Amino acid sequence: GESGAGKTESTKLIMQYLAAVNKSPSNLITEQILEASPLLESFGNAKTVRNNNSSRFGKYLEIHFKDGVITGAKTTDYLLEKSRIVTQASDERNYHVFYELLVGLTETEKEKYGLQSAEKYFYLNQGGSYLIEAKDDSEDFRSLLSAMQVLGFTSEEQDTIFRILAAVLHIGNVYFHRKQMKHGQEGVEIGSDAEIRWASHLLQLSVEGILRALTTKTTDTTKDSVITPLNIDQALDARDAVAKALYSTLFSWLVQRVNQIVYKEKKQTSIAILDIFGFENFRENSFEQLCINYANETFQMFFNKHVFKLEQQEYAKEKIEWQAISYPDNQPVINLISKKPVGIFPLLDDESNFPKATDVSFLEKCHYNHALSELYSRPRMSSMEFGVQHYAGQVWYSVDGFLDKNRDTFRADVMDLLISSKISMIASMFLDLRKTKEAAKTINKSNGRFVTMKPRTPTVAARFHDSLHSLLETMV
Ligand SMILES: Nc1ncnc2c1ncn2[C@@H]1O[C@H](COP(=O)(O)OP(=O)(O)OP(=O)(O)O)[C@@H](O)[C@H]1O
Known about the structure:
- The protein is of the alpha+beta class.
- The protein has helices spanning 7-21, 28-44, 96-104, 107-113, 122-125, 137-150, 155-172, 194-203, 207-215, 232-262, 287-317, 331-338, 344-352, 359-369, 402-407, 412-419, 424-440, 460-475; strands spanning 45-46, 54-55, 58-66, 69-78, 176-180, 186-190, 216-220, 225-229, 269-275, 376-377, 385-390, 393-398, 442-446, 450-456.
- It has a domain at 287-405 and 460-475: Up-down Bundle (Methane Monooxygenase Hydroxylase, Chain G, domain 1), CATH 1.20.58.
- Helix content is 50%, strand content 16%.
- The longest helix is centred in the middle third of the chain and has 31 residues, at 232-262.
- 36% of the residues are buried.
- ATP binds at residues 1-8.
């Protein structure tokens, strides 16, 4: 279904149905599984121009049964849209939870986190949209609190969650001035340190540590550490990277925490529901839309294969009288996006592993390799775009930021800073993240053209591609 078609609503109806036919309707686990849904919706859904409650992540929910009784569940999440945490298009909102928090907390609680109204925050006011018709954010905040209670979140956990959300908003309001450094280098200084002090207080990190992370970059060499000043664009990127890291790590923590509570035993009889972000075509489309639309193409093909192709083969085998139904084959567009070595994703991965590559060099490679494809279009003007003819229509993608988004690098010095938090939940969240990143590192070989000897974390596109394909295997 395209964005707004009704996948999330259907998911909720299916879950309510399963809970109702469950032979032991009074069990706590069923209630907890149902309550996880509004919790993850608060943190992972947002208003877009297509849908007031658009899923900005994919969710695969396995519900386990034994003798007709629900015994547990497991959620797997896919690719939360990180860019929304720091920027929103006109008439769109950031994730629901921010607005719910700001209208739901009492004045005293807001003072505790240093919070004001949504219009005051750069990360919330870019889209110019604060309220959603037919959505009561303060009512939804109460539902969120009750979901946390049913799921057994402790008051410390709840407080840390609010601290992280408030810190993200404070960090977003940090601004910089240009500053001339020694040796003629361009550096920055902070406009006002009030927001840094709030972030330091909320996250229990040193003020100096945060200042250093936002204005300089520390690189470890074999001998010692080199500190270089950031220019204004780099400082703004560093600020946004910290905010994205905080929010997305919190989101992963929430999914894990819910699983810890409701995931009881390994493999059992199960029914699984997949609810993903639907096909999108906005005025401006970026890397996130390419990933989302690639996922939709993949599921479209999976559906065609199982509903039309294999089913009709079965009829033919059984000699059932049948009038063949034809269906469009979207394998060519899947190949255009993901087939090695010159599909759009493999080209993007190559460029992402090449330090000197830019969004422009990536675009040139796409234009060169797909010049003859009917499914691929170059822009008439010299804009930084390419077009893909999807099963649901043609989409133009702007390549600005593709390489950075795909690399998704997390500065080691910033990771160290967050691990140094005196709040153990925050420290352990980032310690776990560091472990996961270390475990995923590989030595990349890029088409034999060059070899990077430094172990690397797989790119976002590569991880997303692999996780989608292992999901399809599970579904078969
Ligand atoms: N069965 C339904 N009954 C009532 N309203 C519905 C139903 N299905 C969808 N809607 C309306 O359409 C809106 C969008 O539906 P939903 O969020 O389920 O779309 P989606 O396919 O999950 O979109 P996305 O891909 O953006 O996440 C809902 O917020 C609701 O207003």
